[in-house]
């Protein structure tokens, strides 16, 4: 099963994990998160991230989901990419995470594709509903 690690600023990843567990209604042993602060030592963050990758990779690969492209979390994720083994997608949101988890039993490239489409399709302009 593809491992999924949410790499975000502060506690955003923890909140996304909690929401995903609630929505999925089951334990998510292939999911982890790494909270990053700009005060963190970059090499230490990389060590922690690599330890999570090693823990969650059963040979199927790992998908890193990060928040803002160009921020510290995405810079950490970018340094960990290993084509076909560790992939990364920026712009994590709850629809992206749920979709990635739903397809984590598939190959890494499918999980990446589904995560991206889930994230994009989960962003909608909402119009007010008709009131009776």
Automatic annotation (TrEMBL):
Pfam families: EIIA-man. Its main location: cytoplasm. Residues 1-123 form the PTS EIIA type-4 domain. GO terms for molecular function: kinase activity. One of its GO terms (biological process) is phosphoenolpyruvate-dependent sugar phosphotransferase system. It is found in: Cytoplasm. GO terms for cellular component: cytoplasm; membrane. Keywords: Cytoplasm, Kinase, Phosphotransferase system, Sugar transport, Transferase, Transport. PANTHER family: PTS PERMEASE-RELATED-RELATED, PTS SYSTEM MANNOSE-SPECIFIC EIIAB COMPONENT-RELATED. This is PTS fructose transporter subunit IIA. It comes from Chitinibacter fontanus. The lineage of its organism: Bacteria, Pseudomonadati, Pseudomonadota, Betaproteobacteria, Neisseriales.
């Amino acid at each position: 099963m593809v491992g999924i690690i949410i790499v975000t600023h502060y506690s955003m990843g923890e909140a996304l994990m909690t929401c995903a567990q609630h929505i999925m209604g089951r334990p998510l042993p292939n999911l982890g998160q790494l909270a990053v602060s700009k005060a963190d030592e970059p090499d230490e963050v990389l060590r922690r991230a690599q330890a999570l990758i090693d823990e969650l990779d059963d040979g199927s690969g790992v998908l890193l989901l990060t928040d803002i492209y160009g921020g510290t979390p995405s810079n950490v994720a970018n340094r960990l990419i290993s084509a076909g083994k560790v992939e990364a997608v920026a712009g994590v949101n709850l629809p992206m995470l749920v979709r990635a988890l739903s397809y984590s039993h598939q190959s890494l490239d499918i999980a990446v594709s589904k995560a991206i489409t889930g994230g994009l399709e989960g962003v909608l302009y909402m119009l007010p509903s008709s009131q009776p």
